[in-house]
Amino acid sequence: MDTVDTVPVTIDALRASYREALGHSNALTDRISTDQFSAHYAERPAWAIGPFERDDRLTFRPEGQWEDPTGVGWTSDSIFNPTVIEAGGELHLFYRASPRKESTASRIGHAVHRDGTWHDDPANPVVRPMTANEALGCEDPKIYEADGRYVLFYNAIWRTDGGEVACDIMSAVSDDLTTWHRLGLAVPYTVSQRWAKGAVVPRDANGSAVRIGGDYLMFLSEGCGGRPMAGRSDDLLSWRFEEQPYLDLSPLPGTLYEVACAAVEGDRMVLDFFYADADGDFAAAQALYALDDPFTQLALNRGGSLAWGGLQKLDGRWSFAQGWDAAPGERELFFYREAVR
């Protein structure tokens, strides 16, 4: 039954989650850097997006700690995996804030860039654990615009009765990027089997979701019992899913972890994804598709943005933000723009 997302989270569960996150450390993710994936591509075919270089003019640094509405004493010392979208002449940033880099017990914050300055939303955290399946945190926002409305997808982390960590894809909708109405579980357990990541919807350079064949598409990758799944929707809110192969890594070679984003320009689509290479090391790559045949891979190239919240064109150049390279204990998000060819 898909009812766990309607059961309220308990304070004891949030307190335990926070204590666990404070002790988090992982040698691999502690040293992960945007530049290792994005700064240099051995080859740069015309269709590939990137490589990228840092642009310090938009660096975001929140001031102070948010008030903790749960009362468990929650704080963050790392911000990362954001999504960016422009609206009304302003740049909106939604980001994951965690007690430790890549730890659980995350919350989602919002900031707006106007008049040359970042303003952190006084309502932060705009998404925090409210239901039992969010007890281990709310992570990795992805925002898409469609018909003047905005849809937010995020990961909800929880632990099953058997003690296994589970990951749900949740959704919320807003008319103004400020007030959000939660919709609950976006991917049913019959599809996710209690672990799904992705919610990657092809979007254009402005952050708008793109219809393909009359529908919006969603690529799921990590989880789903090892099955490559794709969703279709008429409104970004209600989805129907089916098994659909769409990525062949044998030319690299490698093993897929997770698709990060799908960027559409003209009649082509580029999937940007995270994988383990032939040596088992973390790597990024991109795959090319024709927009009228979005599941038939045309080419692969090693190197990618790993822009979990999607690529966005700023001042005419593909861009994204990430906080992996902040100094220990520093909360910073750096912006990266595609290097000029």
Q: Would you give an account of this structure?
A:
The protein has helices at 11-22, 27-30, 34-38, 189-192; strands at 52-60, 78-87, 90-98, 107-114, 117-120, 138-146, 149-159, 165-174, 181-185, 216-220, 229-233, 240-243, 254-265, 268-277, 282-290, 299-302, 312-314, 317-322, 333-338. The chain is mostly beta strands and 341 residues long. A 4-stranded antiparallel beta sheet has the order 1-19-18-17. Strands 2-3-4-5 form a 4-stranded antiparallel beta sheet, with no helix packed on it. The protein has a 4-stranded antiparallel beta sheet with strand order 6-7-8-9, with no helix packed on it. A hairpin with a 4-residue loop joins strand 14 (268-277) and strand 15. The N and C termini lie far apart (52 Å). 46% of the residues are buried. The mean pLDDT is 95.
